[in-house]
Each structure stands twice: as structure tokens, then as C-alpha cells.
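Shapes recur. One chain:

:::
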Amino acid sequence: MLKFINETTDFLKNKGFDTPEIGIILGTGLGQFINEIEVLKEVSYNHIPNFPTATVEFHKGKLIYGILEGRKVIVMQGRFHLYEGYTLQDVTYPVRIMEKLGIKTLLVSNASGAINLNFKKGELMLIDDHINLQGNSPLAFKDVEKLGERFTDMSAPYNAEINSKFKSIAKANNITLHKGVYASVFGPQLETRAEYRMLKIIGADAVGMSTVPEIIVANHLKLKAAAVSVLTDECDPDNLKPVDISEIIAMASKAEPNMITLFKELIKTV
């Protein structure tokens, strides 16, 4: 993997991706964020050596380098998921590339379903902890110790200082920002009523199909990491209605301006 990482990194450096400070991963329906960036360079994933290619229709599939609030950022417009047929090493490969290019902080967004029924769709949740239900680890491969500590500590996977800043920014801007536990499942099917009940019992406040692998690798690489969920639906097993994926995308887009405010204000301070 180290050979592939070096090849990809060299390619992007030659394209002008010059020492970014902050990496950002945009989740489902969260594409407006790009409009806030002074884009200097962009490359489609399918043009980057050794990079996976986004196969989900609402994930754009571009790596973008530019300036946001005076800071150099690298943004994944579209991410990869296990349910697309990728391995966890594929899903997290871009995080390793961003770190190799120079980032020290990783900010992640996603669209998720609210298990905690005190949370409403259209609101945001700051991820304080997570439950990995994807059945594997992105660190479970031969020679992983050449890239970082194999037995990576996960006692505090989400940076407390960044989370504290997020809460202050939300309060100052009258943004509802819950704090909770995110459960990451394999997908792509949505959950049954029984599965929603199980998730609530084990302590999940929201559920999605991403984020946890990237956060694990960010901790493996000693990056400061934080993540925010846009809550796109309410997962009440006693009143469960069929989910329309287009409604989820629309709700993510509607809530995105608040997430953009959080990220932009935070970037001024990290």
C-alpha cells in the first residue's frame, strides 16, 4: 500500500495540491459546500492513480483543493462505501492520501437517520462517539504497522477541542446541534423495525453507512478528527414509513447551510 500511496501523492503534488492543512469529506446530499471554496485545483477520482471511483449517483467523485477562510483545504466531493463493493482499505485510502499531502485535521460530514426520537430531521448531530457495526476494521491488513500503530487507541476518537468549538459556534449562530453516538452499518438497505430497536438499545443516537472507517484511519494517522451528521429522517420503529431516498437527499440539502456555517467558522480557528 505504501507504494500506491506514494504514487498517488506524487501525482497530486504535481497537479498543484500543495500542503493542505485541513481535509474535508462531504456526505450524501452535501454538495453546496464546494461553492464556499476558492477552488485552485480539482481532479476527478477516475483520473487519480490507485484511487477508487464513486459509483453512487449523488456522489460527484472529485478531489478539490482550494482556499476556505484563508486556510488551504482538500475536499472529497463524494466518498466511498462498503456497500459499493469496496474494501475498508479502499474506503479509507483517500484519508491516507490527504494525510500524506499534509493535513493535520479531518472534518467529516454525513447524512444519517435519527434513532434518538428527541432529534428531528433537518437538525444536526455532533458525533461524540461511535459504534462500528460494519463487521471489519480498515486497519486489519498485513503490514499496517508500517503506516501507524496497529492497536490504535479509540478512547476519544473525536477531538474534544474541536467538538467544544463546534458547540460554541452552534450556540452563537442559533443552530440546533445535538451531541450523540453514531452507529455505522454496512448497507445499502435501510434498517428494519427490529434493527432500529436494537440500535437504540445499544446506545446509538443516529445510524448511517459511512464515517467510522475514515475516523478510525484518522486516529491511526494521529489526525485531529471531528464529524457532524445531518439528520435526514426519523427512525421510529413504531411508526415506520417507507423511505424515499430523494427525500433524504432533499433534507440533507435543506440542512446543509447550517453545516456549512459550522465548518467555515471552525476552520477560522483550527
Observations:
- The chain has one domain: 2-267.
